[in-house]
Write a structure and sequence with these properties.
The protein is mainly beta. About 0% of the residues lie in helices and about 50% in strands. Strands 2, 3, 4, 5, 7, 8 and 13 form a seven-stranded antiparallel β-sheet that branches. A four-stranded mixed β-sheet has the order 1-6-12-9, with no helix packed on it. Strand 10 and strand 11 form a beta hairpin. The two termini are about 35 Å apart. The N terminus is likely disordered.
């Protein structure tokens, strides 16, 4: 499995990723670039414009573009991206062709599909209650891409609202 983690500062990241120890000399090498754009509504049209900062109420899309610059297939590539502090994930906006999307509500420790993502809360009575996480509870989004052939690329994206 190959893991890519995009840190909170959103800038270009090039990651050279290798196979497990004992693998042949041929290796996948994934590079990833992160871009952010703000949703702009003009009349009945909506478009995305590149930005460096955002204001409360803005909808921001993060697009992570990946490319396998190596000479071998990258299998089970995982891209983990934290939901930026001060923002709320917008439901049903995480997508990428061929990517399986899961979420975390515990700071990236565990991931699950939205209908299975839960957390526990202790009530004033001391009782512990299990609740289903909502998009506002998400702390991370994870994209699993089964295969990225050598020389191929793709992208994944998600949107948030600035609080």
């Amino acid at each position: 499995m190959i893991r890519i983690w995009s840190p909170a500062p959103r800038a270009f990241i090039a990651l050279a990723l290798s196979l497990a120890a004992g693998a042949s000399i041929a290796k996948p090498r994934l590079e990833i670039a992160i871009a952010q754009a703000r949703e702009v509504v003009e009349g009945k049209k909506t478009r995305m414009v590149p930005i460096q900062s955002a204001s409360p109420g803005d909808v921001v899309q993060y697009t992570l573009t990946y490319a396998n610059k190596g000479d071998e297939v990258a299998n089970d590539a995982v891209i983990d991206d934290p939901i930026p502090k001060g923002t709320t994930f917008l439901a049903n906006t995480a997508a990428g062709e061929g990517a399986e999307v899961t979420f975390s509500s515990d700071g990236g420790k565990t991931f699950a599909a939205p209908v299975r993502l839960s957390y526990e809360i202790r009530l004033p009575s001391g009782e512990v209650q299990k609740r289903i996480a909502t998009p506002a509870d998400y702390t991370h989004v994870r994209f699993l891409i089964k295969q990225v052939a050598a020389g191929k690329s793709g992208s994944v994206a998600f949107r948030v609202r600035v609080n």
